[in-house]
Amino acid sequence: MITSPDRTSLTLEQFTHRIADIINATPGLSDVWVTAETSDVRRSTHIYLELVQKDAVTGQPVARLRATIWRNVAARLDAEFFGATGRRLESGMKVRVKVTASFHPAYGLSANITAIDPSYTVGDLMRLRLEILSRLKAEGVLELNRTLPWPEPALRVAVISAPGAAGYGDFIHQLFTSPARLRFDVRLFPALMQGDRTPAAIISALDEIAAEEERWDCVVIIRGGGATADLAAFDNYELAANIAQFPLPVIVGIGHERDTTVLDYVANLRVKTPTAAAEYLISRGEALLARIDDIAARIVARATTLLSASREQLAYISASLPYAPLRALDNRRRRLENALTGISHIAATRLTPETTRLVRLASSISDSVARQTERQHDRLERIGGLLAVLSPQATLSRGYSITRVDGHAISSSDAITPGTRLTTTLSSGTITSLAE
To answer: What is the Cα–Cα distance from 252 to 273, expressed in whole angstroms?
Structure first.
């Protein structure tokens, strides 16, 4: 059975005012010390932040409350906190604050902070961050990526970001609408940028980039906007270790100026926004172009100087060219005359003694030939006399004879047989006989 609804009702404003009256008048909700972790701290005239409590096992937020430190106490609390801790109030700090619950019909529930206990400073996120950084430093990898040299130019950019993210769009827009009109080669490697699966997704994208390392000059990891509490995924040891040891320079732009993570301490460069990452790459390209323009200007200036000097030299040569052959001929003629004079002097100096030497040599040769001829004549006469004494005719004259058989002289009777015809030559005449 359906009953008729009660026609008596409140407007939303009336209802929220009732809530405000209850909350604002409850003594147990005023000036209460609360422990929590700060998140999304923003500064203007006042300080706005979130107070967060996380599950000890999963690390996920189990309670959140907007909080405000109003202008009339913000400067004093900020100064006291900095004086005690050496740091300004920022996201990721565990704090103990005195709060008063406040409910506004238009803005909802929040807490007004009126005091901070500085001894309750470093929160779980900060402690985890310090532990990760200490571990990376002990392993000797903390500064590796930060010390990598940048290639020139750095135009091939691998980007890790969520597909369709506004931050990625801002990055691309800034990169390709620059007045410098640099030709960047950009490729998106998609990855989740919030939640528990973020570290694994980014590491997987880094592995893809490392597989084609020669294809890229640098890596840009960007995330646009979002609550500071969502940055907890970036305070991860495995992710930080991968970036610290990555072989290419890494730019990290995953938060705003007020937010920091472990990645900001290990990356080659930390920027506050995706647009700032693009501006940095553009500035490197513009700096390189400026250096190239300067070199080109110096080359042009040098070439202009050389051309000017060459023109002057060419003009001088052109003016001198009609007279150059005559001057050359005159120079050669003078050199030839000098050479002839020198040769005449040398001839007069050297030929006279040589002529005298030849005359003496000729006289000496004549005397030597005469003496040699006379000696040879005497020798021939002696030989002729000896031949006359030893000749066969002289021997025959002394009573000897020569017996021949068939024209051959014989010296033994053994070679003669009876009846052999013998011819005997005497000093005067020849005798023919037969052997018996």
So the answer is: 9
